Task: structure prediction
Amino acid sequence: MLGLMQSQQLLISTLITFADRHHGEAEIVSRRVEGDIHRSNYQQVAARSRQVGNALDRWNLGFGDRVATLAWNGYRHLELYFGVSGSGRVIHTLNPRLHPDQIVWIANHAEDQVLCFDLSFLPIVQAVHSRCTSVRHYIALCDESRLPVDSGIPGLISYEAWIGAESSHYEWPDFEENCASSLCYTSGTTGNPKGVLYSHRSTVLHAFAAALPDSLNVSARDAILPVVPMFHVNAWGLPYAAAMTGAKLVFPGPAMDGKSIYELIELEKVNFAAGVPTVWQMLLSHVQVSRLQFSSLKRTVIGGSACPPAMISAFNDVYGVEVLHAWGMTEMSPLGTVCTLKNKHLALSAQEKLQVRVKQGRALYGVDMKIVDGEGLELPWDGKAFGDLLVKGSWVASEYFKDEGSELLVDGWFRTGDVATIDAEGFMQITDRSKDVIKSGGEWISSIDVENIAMAHPAVAMAACIGVAHPKWGERPIIAVMKKQGADVSREALLAFYEDQSAKWQIPDDVVFVDTMPLGGTGKMQKSKLRELLKDYRLPGTDSGD
Ligand code: AMP
Result:
């Protein structure tokens, strides 16, 4: 017997329709490439995204065709999020930080038909367009007066002229909720990038889960600053969760430095911000050096790579900002876990609470997880046993785009490539990417633990721990350190800093100071690059480093 309830498809268009109708005046504020601050609201975003729908129809773009973006976080990008997916096409967010050859490869693999780009990325588009064989239309995200002349890009038009010619009356099409809505490529550990193809259903369910109180706790009373890019996993789904709840959105555009982010937070009374640790490090340095305080910021979600305890403490103890440590990945839309305390933790001391908060957190409803050993046997949830982390759920990828039929899942579970523990309360903690695990004398050393200690030193801006070959122990950890501007620490002082905080055999054998840390397209430290840079490095007292 079936239930007797209406069946409304979970479509992305329903989010913007809802925001328009119930929160039409909630603001969408963007720092633009043009340099100014632009003010809009859900009503305007909804109207303009309907114009996008009409404009795509005029070009007879097929259902499911890909519309690519090379764009910062901003209102036009948001309009494309809703207009492209809502009208039945697939928005493909390209990562402008990738090498042009990779962008070409990805755009061709995705068979993008349209490419919309911010003017900051004009040089990239000029460099790649002749090799992007499927792209039929190029749109510069600007008004007509700023459209570059003699760009060399065939048929280039301005976004404002493109949508300006269209009516804002548009009937969002109704279709099956499992249809594809958006596409994002992940670098993958081996081989070519892999396309993760989200559906309307997975996106809307993910937005519900992201908005829950024990998740990111998003509401109509929030002013949210997603510093996490809209070109990487849909800015962690925040644009959708914000539309679902009517939260104000504040977009940083291209200005990601600490000063610009701080000013935007203060100016727009942002109470909730989301970013990766490397970006938050810049924000913290700015407020520390300039002796500032936050007047509105109350909580921040940090993820993408492990959030060092020192960062959690600095935000919490010095600035009164609660840190929500979160974990996920492109294949998971991305949210898998968020670290929010349970009732029983409330009575704990500050130090004990920190021990919980450094974990990546507990699973959201909709995601299940487990850890397994080398034979695939499930390991206990005791906070000690660590193994390969497997997940499944309503917004976890089942296959990669155009790689259908390859066996991505193991008995329905997706192998994350992370190594983790899970404690009896269900709090998961990542110890490493499986390829970064260090094995020394038969014992595992968590590179994240080693990094977290270095990051607590006041002179350290960034730290990355890698294993190097050792004739006796097999492998030993060393720590590469980038110092804070104007700060100093010696190798000996940093190694001494470890002494009270770490078992002796887990203390790195050496410190290597670097001027810059190799970062990937999404702001994560690239250990593969670091290993390459240090390929001739030899551990003190050994003559072989390989
Ligand atoms: P991506 O798909 O590029 O977003 O990368 C996903 C990977 O980033 C995960 O598999 C983890 O290795 C890593 N990651 C994400 N969040 C965290 C976190 N809070 N702590 C440690 N690693 C993380």
